[in-house]
Amino acid sequence: MSVPTRRTLLASAAVLTAGAAVAQERPPEPIEGNRGASILGPRNAPRAAQNPDIFQPPSTDHGALPNLRFSFADAHVKMREGGWSREVTKRELPVATTIAGVNMRLTAGGVRELHWHKEAEWSFVLAGNLRITAVDTGGHNFIADVQAGDLWYFPPGIPHSIQGLPPDGGEFLLAFPEGSFSEDSTFAITDMFAHMPKAALAKNLQVNADALDAIPKEERFIFQAAPPPPRETDAVHSPQGAVPQNMKFSLMQLPPQTMPGGRVRIADTGNFPISREIAVAHVEVDPGHMREIHWHPNADEWQFYISGRARMTVFGAEGKARTFDYQAGDVGYVPMSLSHFIENTGDEPLRFLELFRAPRFEDVSLAQWMALTPHELVAQHLNIDVAVIDRLRAIKQPVV
Ligand code: MN
Ligand code: MN
Fold first, then answer.
1. How far apart are CA 111 and CA 51, in angstroms?
2. Distance between CA 137 and CA 115 in Å, rounded?
3. Residue 396 lies in a domain
4. Weakest mean pLDDT among 43-57, 180-194, 227-241
5. Residues 382, 259: one domain?
6. Are residues 236 and 103 in the same domain?
7. Nearest ligand, CA of residue 160?
8. Distance from Cα 106 to the centre of ligand 1, integer Å
9. CB distance 158 to 132 below 8 Å
10. Are residues 88 and 218 in the same domain?
11. pLDDT tens-digit profile of 243-257?
């Protein structure tokens, strides 16, 4: 009897993705060697094929770790004229207490309305073009056009807006340094106007009450507006001047840290000073390579997978380890100090973001730690020849 291996699981995943006749493909079974048995009951074959390391775990996996994966494909989509949004918060992924993520799309002219929230807002533009605005407590204003690969950051409570630009608007990932954040509970200008007495609004703005006759009766959230004019014409002059710290950062224009099989770009307060509550690493791993075994001493890690396929094993002490599979649109999570690696399991480059609720990106490299500790000591722990320890890399190499 032939036993399905990890390779055949992935092969059947590719067939399923291609939409070929599922019935003709031998479905994966949770069998490896003499462990496991075939499935007799109902099955969700496409889901099993997407999760080969859950369906047929490595023998090193052991014990219970919390779920560390949730896909935006399983997140409710809030549709409006002008775009949509969906979110992965602590409600969807309970372990993710430090960061919540929102994926949003705006058409050309589509507006995420003027609003603010208690949490800071960090964003990475995934595709297209958008215009962002903000005004700070000193009356300094900010306006910028952003494109794929750009970041923005609005400090807590600072009011802002986002609008899609021609020809086709844009799509972006938002992150908030609070796992229970929800896009549904932000302070929106239309919601506020609908819930303050019109006479008070008129007195405050020093306008006639009839100027407010047509204000919306409820929050708009996202709505379709006319595409804006060029930025130079759209910008408002502030007598106080522009914001003192740039709220935009072109991450993908940063020359990457390169190594065989990978490229890493980091944005934190070291090069993007306003981003005090979110640090990010954009990581690219070529086929056959992996993000090295490491951990983060300062924060939990919230991941967003942009392209490719990956598996991650997380070690949680007390003999606990669990392996999860990821693909484009998935969110992953690693609690602080749990060691992990991320391996490219596909045949295209793997791209993902590591986000931290921290001012700086920090990680500890297993190989570097071993290389910089007395080699005889390390060798005796692991019954490894000291000559092997002598050859370990003393310089940190995020992708190997
Ligand atoms: Mn916002
Ligand atoms: Mn990590």
1. 37
2. 14
3. no
4. 43-57
5. yes
6. yes
7. 1
8. 14
9. no
10. yes
11. 999 999 999 999 999
